[in-house]
Specification:
Strand order of the largest sheet: 1-2
Shape: globular
Radius of gyration: 16 Å
Number of helices: 7
Number of strands: 2
Largest sheet: 2 strands, antiparallel
Strand content: under 5%
């Protein structure tokens, strides 16, 4: 966030945005190909719908642009994959995705939590890490959902 980069303290909004961005990436990296080597059909359609919802509702122009990029690249992978996306191709896409920063060459991205870190979250009587960030993400998406 800009305030933190400029040397100032990050605002609560910056902390929330950081954590929900980590929740998005963590969920995609760990859950999409759980127990399978390729994704197609209804499962791929559901992935497109999820990324599209995020693209429309995520706070932050940069993040929405990166979600747009991800959706476009996923569709390109499907076209080249004959209607399905291979796990290895998806992993390569995740390495190239600059949603919350690219991992250093030869390393994997790792989630980091700020507001949802265990010590901070205990101040609010909630569990930290991914569950906290995921619930926060779902709340933010509900509030920011496009009107039908």
């Amino acid at each position: 966030p800009a305030a933190a980069a400029a040397g100032g303290a990050a605002s609560a909004k910056d902390l929330i945005r950081h954590d929900i961005a980590n929740a998005v990436r963590f969920g995609l990296e760990t859950g999409v190909f759980l127990g399978r080597s390729e994704l197609g059909g209804d499962d791929l359609t559901a992935l497109y719908a999820w990324v599209n919802l995020l693209r429309q509702s995520f706070p932050g122009e940069r993040e929405r642009a990166q979600l747009e990029w991800l959706l476009r690249e996923l569709k390109a992978l499907q076209t080249h994959g004959g209607g399905a996306i291979a796990s290895a191709s998806f992993d390569g896409l995740m390495q190239a995705w600059d949603f919350i920063g690219k991992p250093a060459p030869g390393t994997r991205w790792q989630a980091s939590w700020r507001l949802c870190r265990a010590s901070a979250a205990s101040d609010f009587d909630v569990h930290g890490g991914y569950p906290c960030a995921l619930w926060t993400l779902l709340h933010v998406l509900t509030v920011r959902a496009p009107r039908a």
